[in-house]
Specification:
Radius of gyration: 19 Å
Number of domains: 2
Order of helices and strands: HEEEEEHHHH
Distance between the termini: 45 Å
Low-confidence stretches: 105-121
Strand content: 15-25%
Mean pLDDT: 76
Structural class: alpha+beta
Strand order of the largest sheet: 1-2-3-4-5
């Protein structure tokens, strides 16, 4: 950690999102759905920590301190607009993760054991292009070809709608991935195969459309 600080390799923010499944290193609480912990690292290397938890009823709770458009604020001082921005960030990250890791609907992404892991996780498709600069985050495209010059790599334009796991078939697993993500926004990184009707939101209607497109009889696995 000290070496990373000296070399100025620390990011300005670290966070992780996790689901509620029980098991080693889990919280074993039955009342929450997802939680996100955010560490904001200031220029002087002091750290502020905030946590947002969404329970099974859809209620959000906030603890700690958050960086907002109006500066750093304690949870008790957050405005409705501040809370909405944090909630939207949580839901968008959930959606991006379910798109990047299809089938892992209860995120098995534990807190990092080292900052090296955080850095490595910034390249989901292992093409040596960091997620923030990659024009197709979930499909390896080291050349970053973008024939339409619109910020979406050609590799992502080949994604087949409904084929959420990108294995060339549309089956019950794909339908489960879509239904499990109902209510989430479409991925901001790629053309999202779960958002079949293109309305920016993953809904039961997307699953209904995909059920008619299954390439396996009866939508078997």
């Amino acid at each position: 950690m000290e070496k990373l600080k000296k070399d100025k390799k620390l990011p300005t923010r670290l966070d992780w999102i996790s689901g509620n499944p029980k098991g080693p290193r889990r919280r074993n609480r039955a009342d929450d759905d997802y939680e996100k912990t955010i560490y904001e690292i200031k220029p002087d290397q002091t750290v502020e920590q905030g946590k947002v938890v969404k329970d099974k009823t859809g209620k959000y709770t906030f603890t700690g301190t958050f960086k907002t458009a109006g500066g750093y604020k304690a949870a008790a001082d957050l405005t409705d607009a501040d809370k909405k921005a944090i909630q939207d960030d949580l839901e968008q990250e959930r959606s991006d993760l379910t798109d990047a890791y299809p089938g892992v609907l209860a995120f098995v992404i534990p807190p990092p054991d080292s900052l090296d892991i955080v850095v490595n996780d910034n390249d989901v498709d292992n093409d040596s292009i960091r997620n923030g600069r990659d024009n197709c985050v979930v499909v390896s495209n080291p050349g970053q070809s973008d024939s339409q010059n619109n910020g979406t790599g050609d590799a992502c334009r080949t994604v087949v709608k409904c084929d959420t796991d990108r294995n060339g078939t549309i089956d019950i697993i794909d339908l489960s991935n879509i239904l499990g993500a109902r209510g989430l926004p479409a991925s901001r990184f790629t053309i999202d195969p779960r958002d079949v009707d293109g309305d920016g939101l993953i809904t039961a209607n997307d699953a209904r459309i995909c059920a008619l497109r299954c390439t396996k009889s009866g939508c078997a696995q």
